[in-house]
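Page 37, top half.
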Amino acid sequence: MSRRLKKPLNEEAVKKATKEFYANHHELNGKPLSATDPKQAALRKEWMDLYVKHVGEVENKTSRITEQDYNDVAKDLGVDVCAIKAIATVESRGDGFLSSDHPKVLFESHKFHKYSRGKYDKSHPELSHTYWEYDEEGNVMRDKKRNKIRHKTYYKGGEQEVTARLNKAIILDSDAALKSASWGKFQIMGFNYKEAGFNSVQEFVAAMKKNEGEHLKAFGNLIKNNPSMHNALKNKNWAKFAKQYNGSDYSKKEYDKKMATAYQKCRSSQEATNNPKSKKKLGETVTSCSLADGIVPMAPMSVSIKGAVGKNGKNFVEASVGCVPRT
């Protein structure tokens, strides 16, 4: 979860947290922590925990996106709210920020090759190259010209995706680098900044750095500005949606299946919340099957709830509800 200090700072909490932190880490000799070094992520979290312990307040970027936010965008798009949540779950595991407070990113080298016109292919092959094919373990196999590539993919993930790849590419060509990364909770590609509602990729990235509410707004704009994608999301046609959202290779990573699974999980949770199971009496027959809408419509089978006596002498209930495809 991404956290930042809530302003104005609690100066007393800062002093106490800092004193206790360095008392536990004499090896640092009072040296300030880096705000971006992934090796110090655990130390930054420790200091933050101490700040909270001493009544300092923090704000969570992830907490800024609410159920009402989701519902508003879903209503605006005319889609199931769980369809939107499913995309977020698959794209970023539901969290749009790293522990360093930087938006989650995935830097795509073949896109940087495209937008920088291959200028850095030879000098920085880890940042710029043509599209590569991968084996099942993620190792690079060959490029389109069938040239064998012996090293593994350069993808780092997490904090290093920012420090070891994106930031280095920004130094070479900022505009191309920002366009070549996917950003935030919905992993929107930088080159889609116009469809996401922004005048420049820089403006888009600035919004992505603010909070997840901006991620959701950008996603809503992107969907509205792509009618075919919008229609696929409305109909929960996950294969069609994933092909447009994730690219033609979507099936290799099973994006469509993952989205369908995330959607079903959300709907099941939603239904359980809205329709809590009522208490049944022993011997009562259940004639309804409460399942979220699925790919295959389901019909109920009647089953009886059986009573039994536990070791403590008290009655407990066992039930088995079966459902079959509707014919």
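Page 37, bottom half:
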Amino acid sequence: MSEQDKINKMGIIAEIGSAFMFLSRLPVPQRLFQNGFPSLNDSLWAFPVVGAVIGFIGAGIMMLASALHIPMGVAVVFALIAMVMTTGGLHEDGLADMADGFGSHKGAEEIARIMKDSVIGSYGTIALICLFFMRWTSISAIEISMILALLPLSMAVGRASVVLALITTPLSPHASLGKMLSKPEMPVIFVTSFILFLLASFVSFGVVLAGLLAALSGFVIIRALAIRKIGGLTGDVMGALIVTTELLFLIGVISYG
């Protein structure tokens, strides 16, 4: 392997590590960044990889629980706890902040202030309760034999929604964290699509299509609300997109079945 090949390989690994640092609380060895930290935009292609790993963690816990004859409902709770701990509740916090802000019916400046407030209000609380109840119900409805394919795919779809959002949606003037990202280039879009295709290849076409259409419907609604309310994307809106599209993907899958 030439020196340039080694540098390219380390660059790819560093981009994956950067994506894990941004989207999860999983430990990432600092030696991966001995040649410097890649830009977050260069790491966008690895977002679905992070989602798939989180999904595999949840699916693995469910399969282990099933082997130990633990009731499915309890196994799903264990899986949800593990996945939220893996992400640090980052995306759920974004959903809660967006619900509080958009539910306030205030102007853009006030909505942005509410979304940056660390206190969760009534709309945010209701949104989180609904999210976890619907997650629990949806995952419980999946056959255990398919959980290893569908849960990672749903999590990957959720993270890929950020890439789609950056392609189609402007950043809000009130964005802070969101300003670390910009419209991805074609190689990022291609690799993101290829990773989703690989994960989807273990599931029938009709099931994947139903899930993607359901996820897309949620994406369109949140995107439209974000543009109307605050002029575009913020970090909180991206978090809300992730948890909403992954949930709607699962709902579309079980509805098709």
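Margin note: Confidence is low (pLDDT under 50) at residues 3-7.
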